[in-house]
Amino acid sequence: MNESLSALLRDYPAASFIVGVVALVALVLPSVSKSMREAGGLIGTAARKVHEWRERAIAEDQQVTAREIADLRAEIDRLDAGIRRIEERETLQHAYIVEVTERMRRIEIWAADNGLTLPPPPFRTFTEWLTDRETHQPGRDAPGD
Predict the structure, then answer these.
(1) What is the DSSP annotation of 65-105?
(2) Which DSSP symbol is given to 118?
(3) pTM for this entry
(4) 23-58: pLDDT as tens digits
(5) Cα dist. 63→40, 51, 70, 94 in Å?
(6) Which residue ranges traverse the bilayer (predicted)?
(7) CB 53, CB 37: distance < 8 Å
(8) Which string of b and e fits 73-107 if b means at least 16 CB within 10 Å?
């Protein structure tokens, strides 16, 4: 059967065109036309099969899209949490800088008022300051506080 169809298509070039048009009509129109899907026979069967393939492909695409959206939402949530941690840390670092600067300024003013020249005190690192802040409320332990 395949050999006779091959021979026909090879001997009659117009037959290739006709087969192509029939295939196009058989595959494209059935997916569009509901009445063709409801028709009996070979055209109706082909129309229903093409419609099923199309519907299955649409459903699979929707599932893939839903999974991708879920993945993107999870990534957004992860990034939001990271941004919140960074903002919290930045807020603490800013509070540290303000506190140290204010304390040093008060020490300098106190020393100047008392006619003293002081060497710079050892500074607590941010990590030390953060640990102290967590264990007790920032206090007023510097001269001039």
Answers:
(1) HHHHHHHHHHHHHHHHHHHHHHHHHHHHHHHHHHHHHHHHH
(2) -
(3) 0.46
(4) 766 666 655 566 666 667 776 777 777 778 888 999
(5) 32, 18, 11, 46
(6) 12-29
(7) no
(8) eeeeeeeeeeeeeeeeeeeeeeebeeeeeebeeeb
How many angstroms from the chain centroid is the CA of residue 120? 49
Give the mean pLDDT of 102-118: 88
Q: Look up residue 5 and give its two tokens.
A: 């169809």
> How many other CB atoms sit within 10 Å of the CB of residue 68?
10
Number of Cβ within 10 Å of residue 27's Cβ equals 14
Euclidean distance between CA atoms 17 and 9, whole angstroms: 9
Where are the domains positioned within the chain? Answer: 33-135
**Helix residue ranges, H only, the chain:** 2-11, 13-32, 34-38, 41-113, 126-135
Q: How far apart are CA 98 and CA 104, in angstroms?
A: 10
Report the 10 Å Cβ neighbour count for 34: 10
Looking at residue 120, its amino acid is: P
Q: Does residue 26 contact residue 43 with C-beta atoms inside 8 Å?
A: yes
